[in-house]
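Sample 3 of the quickstart, ligand 5-O-phosphono-beta-D-ribofuranosylamine:
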Amino acid sequence: MKTKNIVVFASGTGSNFKALHQAALKREIPARITALISDNPDAGALRYAREHGIREHIVSPTDYEDSTGYVQKLREILGSESPDLIVLAGYLKKIPNEIVDLYKRRIINIHPALLPKYGGKGWYGMRVHRAVIENGDQESGCTVHYVTRVYDEGPVIAQVKVPVRKDDTAETLAARVLKQEHLLYPKVVRFLLSHS
Ligand code: GRF
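Result:
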């Protein structure tokens, strides 16, 4: 199978980015991660990219007066990287509609809940896990979905459930979900790249 190109977007720690990169190194996914795009110069993900010789692009919508410049920059970067798949891994900015349209069905995201529950603008990170616990849900999990113009509303590709235990805190639940994310994301990427 031909090796394909992946570009990852990440704003934070980058543990999913790392899991994907490790899977690619082990040839568990038929791809190489050519670049990381981040809006956050302090992102752990950027550190990891530097340590592993993955090209980095720091680009944030806040650096541009309007969305045109930002979109143009993203188009340039993605045009030069030629990704077969764009993987959002904890990327906190919205992907502009123009980019979503240009890479239709080639952008995926992972969300730390069972979408459509706890999805949409403002639902990210510990807020999600706190709400799951406050609502007394008995299960949570993670979802991989296609990215469309609306936050967290694209078609679901795969979900994994985890139990919510009585003594869980948002932190213990987050850790249980994240562990599953690291297993699920490489599997989904492998599946998609093997069927494209
Ligand atoms: C994950 O929980 C993911 O579901 C969400 O952002 C978090 C990123 O974590 N979209 P990390 O930076 O990959 O550790």
